[in-house]
Design goal:
Layout (H helix, E strand, L loop, with lengths): L1 H20 L11 E5 L6 H16 L3 E5 L4 H9 L5 E5 H9 L11 E16 L14 E3 L7 H11 L8 E3 L3 H9 L5 E6 L4 H7 L5 E2 L4 H10 L4 E5 L10 E13 L4 H13 L16 H4 L9 H9 L7
Parallel strand pairs: 1-2, 1-3, 5-6, 5-7
Antiparallel strand pairs: 3-10, 4-7, 4-8, 4-10, 9-10
Helix pairs in contact: 2-9, 5-8, 6-7, 9-11
Length: about 325
């Protein structure tokens, strides 16, 4: 009788967990594959995420599988639907999800923060040297990100800082790779790409074309930061894509998220593997060189997963949880 009662209570507890997280939770248990949804194959999320997943699988005693993603919003929904245990997401989009605004009709709270890894720069790419400022995009054919991606809102924010809106351009909605191809073929005049620089799609384009990046000026950056404080000012150096000069722009954080039902010890092993091996893994992916604990623990909009909090607290950092 006691066994039967325990079984019923366990089943009920699992059902409550599944309703709260909106998914099956399959793969969340230790020993199962952790599905890590990243980004498009031409972006930094996919390239860096695949390296992180492979290293953790080979060295941390956990199984992590990197899979292609379709933008930050879609990645959050994959976790909510139980199709992924880990995800890359822009810091602004994760806040939208948790608060239930902009891209999200209602709050999504079945995930927590693992770590902020690096800054994703807003890169406005063009092959037309006459496009020198954001204001010059008026009337042009401009890719403003794949449907469901955070790039769209970044583009709208930046256009808005210059007094422009979606109707002031001829918008297309394309991934990084498709945007690069469209630029090469002369089908669009410019494209917004929000990813860690250098980004594979732009680097590949720069091997055959003279790429230009549109800079943001100080006055409009200040206006943008006042309206949207989740951006930070940053610089893309001229050697990144062999541009004529350094480019001033803004960026958001690239953050790894985890479903709340992934066990604490699994996330502890995962985050430990990332940061304890960062220095030795720079040759595998350059983004490892940008990792630091100050930035990793800087997220305040979404609580940290207990496994991540345990690791960072051992390093002397208190995080929201």
């Amino acid at each position: 009788m006691k066994k039967k009662l325990f079984s019923l209570l366990l089943t009920a507890a699992m059902a409550v967990s599944l309703v709260a997280c909106g998914g099956s939770g399959a793969g969340a248990s230790a020993g199962s594959d952790l599905r890590f949804v990243t980004g498009g194959e031409s972006g930094t999320y996919y390239a860096f995420g695949s390296v992180i997943a492979q290293h953790a699988t080979n060295n941390a005693g956990i199984k992590v599988v990197g899979i292609v993603g379709n933008g930050s919003q879609a990645n959050v929904m994959e976790m909510e639907d139980g199709n992924a245990e880990l995800a890359f997401c822009q810091s602004d989009v994760m806040a939208y999800a948790y608060e239930g605004k902009n891209l999200f009709e209602k709050p999504v709270t079945c995930f927590s923060t693992v770590a902020a890894l690096y800054t994703e720069q807003v890169q406005i790419v063009t092959l037309d040297p006459s496009i020198k400022t954001v204001a010059d995009l008026k009337g042009k054919k401009v890719s403003i990100g794949a449907a469901g991606s955070g790039v769209y809102f970044n583009a709208i924010d930046i256009l808005g800082a210059y007094g422009l809106g979606e109707t002031d351009i001829e918008p297309t909605y394309q991934s990084f790779g498709d945007s690069a191809d469209a630029l090469k073929d002369g089908k669009i005049d410019a494209a917004f790409v929000v990813a860690g620089a250098p980004t594979t799609a732009i680097t590949d384009l720069a091997t055959t074309k003279q790429v230009s990046l549109v800079a943001l000026d100080g006055e409009h950056i200040d206006k943008l930061l006042a309206a949207s404080p989740y951006y930070t000012k940053c610089t893309i150096t001229k050697d990144t894509y062999n541009t004529a000069s350094d480019i001033e722009t803004v960026g958001v954080g690239a953050v790894v998220l985890a479903r709340n039902d992934v066990p604490e010890d699994v996330i502890y092993k995962f985050v430990s593997d990332i940061f304890e091996n960062a220095e030795s893994q720079v040759s595998a992916h350059a983004k490892y060189a940008e990792l630091n604990l100050d930035y990793a623990t800087s997220i305040t909009s979404v609580p940290y997963h207990p496994g991540a909090a345990k690791y960072f607290e051992e390093k002397g950092y208190k995080v929201a949880k």
